[in-house]
Write a structure and sequence with these properties.
The complex is a heterodimer of chains A (95) and B (157).
Chain A lengths: L8 H9 L4 E4 L8 E4 L2 E4 L1 E4 L2 E9 L4 H12 L8 E9 L3
Parallel strand pairs in A: 5-6
Antiparallel strand pairs in A: 1-5, 2-3, 4-5
Chain B lengths: L1 H8 L2 H4 L11 E3 L2 E3 L3 H13 L4 E4 L2 H12 L12 E5 L3 E11 L4 H20 L2 E13 L15
Parallel strand pairs in B: 5-6
Antiparallel strand pairs in B: 1-2, 3-5, 4-5
Helix pairs in contact in B: 3-5
Classes of the chains: A alpha+beta (95), B alpha+beta (157).
Chain lengths: 95, 157
Amino acid sequence: MTSSPFPDADGIAAAVLACPGVVGLHGGVFGEVATYLPSRRVIGVQVAADRVAVHITARLGDPVQLVAAGVRAVTEPLACGWPVDVVVEDVDQPS
Amino acid sequence: MAQNASSNASDPIEAVAPGSAMIGRGVDGEQGRTTIADGVVQKIAGIAAREVSGVHNLGSGSARAFGALRERIPGSAGPATTPGVSVEVGEKQAAIDLDIVVEYGVAITALAANVRRNVIAAVERMTGLEVIEVNIAVDDIFIPGDDVDPEQPTRVQ
């Protein structure tokens, strides 16, 4: 059980936030979508159990499918081959 | 011939490759033995589990109550073991069982997976033991504001 490749939640979060049409990461209804690290969490990116989930808020007016496809495209190279789930939780005006 | 066969069959030295970097519990090196006590693995696992965000505490309710009771027994030096953590340590491997209390609002299976990863990394890096399994039991959920005992005013002055 020596350290197998493990996707970097911080790296994924940074890459997703840089995607066009992404307003922010979304923690889900209860804020439960997160990677739980020592002393902190990466909200909106869940790296656990051989699966990566990215939950986002998309920009209002942008085509949601395209935004999600862009998020998937930047996440997959960082996911160490794990399946990537992209969830658009909300749409919002950029603040 | 018979002597040769028996020395090949079960020579304990052969189990450890000479010059192996493995420093495990009770593994004989060429110049001595390094022993890692169960309590060491317990403490490391306990700290590594507790530090993960979303873990409120370790130990089931009864284990914590028992620990508090034991601390009050005169002559007892407090809890002898880390509550909520039990370990089995072999020569090169360790198995760990954790009882945890999670915070309300976490994804419990994801949290358990992240706790498992952190505990394995901590124990393997610090002790050199191979962790073969980490079993996690979620015994309770912590709701903020639930834990603060209302100050019981003492009845006698």
